[in-house]
């Protein structure tokens, strides 16, 4: 992601993004980086909704949304990128409509499919940052493998009931662990679906917004990206906990035998 002459900000853009530009850590050059970036969001549900909203509002040049589901009435309690009049529509098209209304600058790429195999690898390779906003472990592990192979930073989030978590992984950093170092591939196929256990609506808003924040920090190259840390939130008490973890040299995805 390198800004080019085409990424120069016109007067309307300077006004739209002026509150970012006023920040010493961003400025015009930082906003140009945002306006040149491609972000892949896997899952446009509870987490992907706020993440996509903030990334689009911030002016990410190309926002790729991948989700095979359609909007259901039960989604609307927390999946804030969707609307009552898009119930029954594909989630990616529903999201695109909302995002374009907020900011026409980004190019929204709706992928009405469950990304996997070669297609997943291809889209991860095209991205500057990947957000895993899915709700099942097979997808998370597949996304992680693709990010490690392509050396793309990954921001992962999860939330169910009142409990949320997120972590950042960056295979460009030599000692950065990957998702597989933290979570094995054995066990249940999901966190526990919202349809079974429920989810407190603002929880996914908090986690998804934090994913967007870390994605923008990665795009900008800001310091303080929290690698090797799993943040967990109990929103009943608003207790945050931080679990520190290291790269596993024997990890079957990023371990010594698999690093180039």
The coarse silhouette is: globular
CATH architecture of the largest domain: 3-Layer(aba) Sandwich
Query: How many structural units, i.e. domains?
Result: 2
Strand order of the largest sheet: 3-2-1-4-5-6-7-8
Mean pLDDT: 93
Largest sheet: 8 strands, mixed
What is the assigned CATH homologous superfamily of the largest domain? NAD(P)-binding Rossmann-like Domain
| SS element count, helices | 10
Please give the share of residues in helix.
25-40%
Oligomeric category: single chain
**Structural class by secondary-structure content:** alpha/beta
Gist?
The chain is α/β, with parallel strands linked by helices and 260 residues long. 36% of the residues lie in helices and 17% in strands.
Structure description:
It is globular and about 50 Å long. The chain starts with 10 loop residues before the first helix and ends in a 16-residue tail after the last strand. Helix 4 runs parallel beside helix 5 (91-102). The longest helix is centred in the last third of the chain and has 20 residues, at 201-220. It has helices at residues 11-16, 18-21, 27-34, 48-58, 91-102, 117-126, 137-150, 179-182, 194-197, 201-220; strands spanning 38-42, 62-66, 107-111, 129-132, 154-160, 163-169, 229-234, 239-244. It is built from ten helices and eight strands. It is an alpha/beta fold and 260 residues long. The protein has an eight-stranded mixed beta sheet with strand order 3-2-1-4-5-6-7-8, sandwiched between helices.
């Amino acid at each position: 992601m390198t800004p080019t002459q085409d990424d120069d900000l016109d007067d309307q853009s300077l006004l739209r993004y002026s509150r970012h530009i006023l920040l010493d850590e961003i400025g015009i050059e930082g906003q140009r980086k945002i306006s040149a970036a491609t972000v892949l969001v896997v899952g446009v549900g509870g987490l992907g909704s706020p993440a996509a909203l903030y990334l689009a509002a911030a002016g990410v040049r190309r926002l790729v949304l991948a989700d095979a589901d359609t909007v259901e009435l039960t989604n609307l309690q927390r999946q804030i990128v969707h609307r009552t009049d898009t119930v029954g529509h594909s989630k990616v098209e529903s999201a695109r409509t909302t995002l374009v209304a907020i900011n026409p600058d980004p190019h929204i790429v709706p992928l009405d499919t469950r990304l996997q195999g070669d297609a997943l690898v291809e889209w991860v390779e095209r991205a500057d940052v990947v957000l895993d906003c899915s709700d099942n472990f097979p997808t998370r592990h597949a996304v992680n493998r693709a990010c490690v192979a392509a050396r793309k930073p990954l921001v992962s989030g999860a939330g169910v009931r009142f409990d949320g978590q997120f972590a950042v992984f960056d295979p460009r950093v030599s000692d950065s662990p990957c998702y597989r170092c933290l979570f094995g591939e054995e066990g249940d196929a999901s966190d526990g679906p919202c349809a079974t256990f429920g989810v407190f609506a603002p929880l996914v808003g908090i986690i998804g917004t934090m994913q967007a924040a870390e994605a923008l920090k990665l795009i900008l190259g800001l310091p303080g990206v929290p690698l090797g840390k799993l943040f967990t939130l109990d929103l009943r008490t608003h207790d945050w906990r931080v679990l520190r973890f290291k790269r596993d040299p024997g990890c079957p995805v990023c371990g010594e035998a698999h690093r180039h």
